Amino acid sequence: MTTRTSAPDTNNGAAVAERTLAILSTDTGRWLGLHAGRLDSPAGRAELPVTPRVKALLQLALLCRCWQKAAPDDIALEPVLAVVEHAWRRPDFPRLLAHSPDSARPFGLIWAALAPTGAATDARRDLLGRLSADGYLTPRRKSPYLHLGTRFYADLAGLGHELASYEKLYANSMLARADGVPVTELDVCQVTDTVFHLSDYGFRDTGLNTEARERALRVVERLTDHCVGENAWEYAAKLLLAQHCLGSDPLRTPSGTAALAMLAGARSPDGSIPGKTARGRAPASAGPQQYFRWAYQPTLVTALTTLLLVNGRHPQPVPTTAPPTARRTR
Asked: Among 7, 86, 93, 267, which is most buried by a count of CB atoms within 10 Å?
């Protein structure tokens, strides 16, 4: 975790932010518990396009994996996890992963890495064997971004591989070269996913030395300010989590508190975030299924962020144990 923290509060701002965070976490988690089942319902299978539906289920599985690690006794997890477990038991799910050739192998790896305990054991083993046999777990011509994601999920799946070290992958990432680059030239998803994969969503230290971590945090905070200015709700939620994963306490940074207040203001009465941005929010005329398609991903991202902040904030500095040039090479 980083040695960087923001200045201590001189008023009750942190307490207000903590209450706001807790409400957002509860509301978004409850909405997912009520509505995520649409993804694996007969209506969802009939009406939702295959590849986006599969991607949404993989995202839900990632949320459940983090939820089980951060708050395993939270009863709000149960209905969400039940959706994932039911989907993973479906014998046709491995076939759906390959519906789009471009996403078949990354989806397959993620599906195998996030499989609930005891789910689809034989199919998982077969798929992982095919990925190893066809060279997917080698560098080949992967971009640094895809390479890092592949490394993360291969490690999560317990696979042997020939992929590059985290140190090398970070050095080649957009984030490593982004200090001073205009925010309009940066890809929020690439920046945040780099942080998430290095830190396992905040469950381990990034392995970055203090200087590199400070540079990365400056980039993330600049991007957070920009996304708040643009009312980009989903991106702001991702960046809040990235601040946390870099060892900061976003409830004590100006950009973090602004992003949290924006998300709280965006929240619908039912607890959902009604779109990725203010300009791209669901129309008032949207029916339940249409609204679900607008709200699902930004609500899930906000639920993931607030869950991990509620259960894993570190408002006090913890000295890094990494030497100045160290990086994880596992």
From this structure: 267
